[in-house]
Amino acid sequence: MISVIRITEAGSPDVMKVITGEKTDPAAGQVWLEQEAIGVNYLDVTQRNGAVRIPLPSGLGLEGAGRVAAVGEGVDNVKVGQRVAYATGPIGAYASARLFPAERLVPLPDNVSCEDAAAVLFKGITAQYLLKSTFQVAQGATVLLYGVAGGVGQIMAPWAKALGATVIGVVSKPASVPIAKNAGCDHVIVFNPTTLADEVAKVTDGRKVDVVYDPVGRISFEASLNSLRPRGLLVSFGASSGAPGPVELSTLNAKGSLFLTRPSIVAHTSTAAEYQQRAKDVLSALAAGTISAHIWRTYALADAVTAHSDLENGKSAGAIILTP
Hints:
Elements: E1 2-6, E2 17-21, E3 30-40, H1 42-49, E4 64-71, E5 83-86, E6 97-101, E7 106-107, H2 114-134, E8 142-146, H3 151-162, E9 166-171, H4 177-182, E10 187-190, H5 196-203, E11 209-214, H6 221-226, E12 228-236, H7 249-254, E13 259-261, H8 272-288, E14 295-300, H9 304-312, E15 319-323
Parallel strand pairs: 8-9, 8-11, 9-10, 11-12, 12-13, 14-15
Antiparallel strand pairs: 1-2, 3-4, 3-6, 3-15, 4-5, 5-7
């Protein structure tokens, strides 16, 4: 028997229920994966509470790691007994075991644990495409990064530093300043939308930044635009304060011919080849010590309700994983 988290309606963490299921033989192109660790991401919360709609009833979770227990016909990229990880779905990671498409599995290096892989891969792929595709961070770049104390920020800050950037971190409270400093930020600013741009100008001697990575959304949007140098890029990739409002194109012109983009992980992992390339880059960076897992807390799969409550209420200070 296996344990699976299911939801039949959107709502509070209590809508998640543990049910039992049976092992299923993998079809062609599939594997049966016995999971050892499951990553918890804020996207899981928004899918559960209805902010991001998914067909119901449904499982939850897009990231996990474990061992291949059986393979279907035509599978030759992984073998039985191999340790593997995945991110970006298909949805249903909150389970002790599951079917999964073999082409979306990534073999784990010997020095990367299942726990670390499950804590890093989804967030790491986000960091990877933001730093290497959305804007190619390189030696001499200056970046402004919100949420440095969070899961994605803890990966992006040291990776951007390794690529040669000056990193200005933005945190929500003074208590998070040491966390941001430890992640490698050159400067740390406690967020205030009315003063942020002036503080950025001060620490850059008036030059401001090449790129802003903004997962906050509505309340930070104007401050982010005002923190950019002429022809700088605002990367709006989240909406923790609500989605940003419409922007007049003339505003971008008036503020210095700025660029604006709203990227998604789906558009950057749409093919198996691109997904594999990004995932392997993340695991290589993890194995090399460029980035770290920063696991804040591990919960049993049966305690997913508590894990979601802690994440949603801002209690976490790093990655959360579930273990079957």
